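Checked the freezer inventory, then went back to the computational side. Two predictions to log before the end of the day. The first one is the construct we discussed on Monday; recording sequence and tokens without edits.
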Amino acid sequence: MTDLNQPVNIVLQITKLDLLKFVVPTVSAFVIGILSTPLIMKYFLVKYDIRKKKSVATTVDGKAAPLTASVDQDEKKILYRMGGLVMLTGLLTTALGIWLIAEVTKNPTFVKLDFISRNQTWLPLFGLLVGAIVGGLDELLVCGKLKGKFGRSLGSGLALRYRIGAVGLVGVLCGWWMAVKQDLSSLHVPFFGNYNIPVLAFILLFVLVVTVTYSGTIIDGVDGLSAGVFSSILMALGFIAVTQSKFDVATLCFATVGALFAFLWFNIPPARFMLSEVGSMALTVMIAIIAFVTDSVFVLPIIAALLYLTTLSVVLQLLSKKFRGKKIFIVAPYHTHLQLKGWPKYKVTMRYWVLSVMFASTGLAIYLLGGHFR
């Protein structure tokens, strides 16, 4: 049997109950997300006025940002933050609900549907929760609901060093757990084979990938854009997990997409809220961890290319301003540049969706052709 035939045979061996495992949590996360949105809006976002009170005033390097502010215009519209709570509610209620029913009833069907497992989904869910908590604290600071030494200033959010520190700590803990507790310190490079990596180097790589992927949260900011991009990434990672018979990871990916679709239902223009850090930080950290769990680290830069390219546009802009004394883009990140070039938001969003599907499909194809299955 060739490596290329293995995923085909795995897919052919999927039973009806396996398909049910993928579909039921996905639909459940979508429905719960939709039904919970009015409650989240009324009793939290609206009640406590969870929205930013002013437009972006400065860039990452501390310079004035009048062009970016002209695109945001936060003072002229009511757009609530922390919309990621819709995604989190749909996903976590589904995961915990199925797990609880399976534990209490021991019903074989619900035991099969349960996708919370120690060897597959504990680490991604841990990353999701930490990202959501830290992102939530950042949002509450941005909205002026919390004050303290952890914020740079009122309305500016959690200081970057604390966010990066939290993400780095997650990387250290998860990298150590995989390398030491699960003995999975080897990685596959498509078309070249598997390579054993020393534990310390594996942990450092884990931290690097989680941190760099987290930097892609800046893709959030245009109605509908980030949710569509994240959905494409998770679908590709879910299919990779299926080819490895890691059905719990696959179900986690698909259920997250279902929950994101619920968020997207209300985020399509005119958006009621934005994903913001509570959602985007949770997702980027989880995506990076799933890439290690499915050994798809070296195709993640292709699957999640738009996250990395968005970050790269900011880095290049800062370097150009520092060393050349002029800008490459009107503003960074690039999707904001496109808006100032005259692209309407829906055009930016739809074309990013198309590109995200193409990148995710290309990464999936390279993974399958690269000839690796644990």
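The second is the one RB wanted added to the comparison set:
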Amino acid sequence: MKTHITNLKIILLFTLVLLGTSFAAESKDQIKIKKLITEAYIEGLMNWGDPEQTKKGFDPTFNLLIIGKNDVLRRYSISDWIENVSRKKKKFPQGPKQKTVVNFVFVDVTGNAAVAKIELFTAGSLIYTDYLSLYRFKSGWRIVSKIYQQHK
């Protein structure tokens, strides 16, 4: 009987540890990364916000990698992306018809490297699943690359 109670205590303790791990609070880095992605990427690029805020959040060598026709990988630089958004903003100063919102699926941080999987929604519909790579520089976190899946 004593062994049975001890085993139950061990199982209960193990279960509590597992539950505690799954409900662990976000790290400071995860919070910073989510804020950076929201301000620089979602508000800056997708919702045509402040280009200076966008520049702070992206490394100048950032590339969006796109699979093109015949499986040819193309690169789209952050400077080209900001320029394209600026043209749209001049043409439509009120901004996009529908704002884009983000759902953070996960943010995984290991030392100075991080990966974020996010879902982008417009008008309640999932439009993209993005995988962002980030590095922590002396000046802070910056997005260095992106791949994505477009949803129809």
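For RB: Strands lie at 58-67, 73-77, 100-110, 113-122, 125-137, 140-150. The chain has one domain: 25-150. Let me know if you want it refolded.
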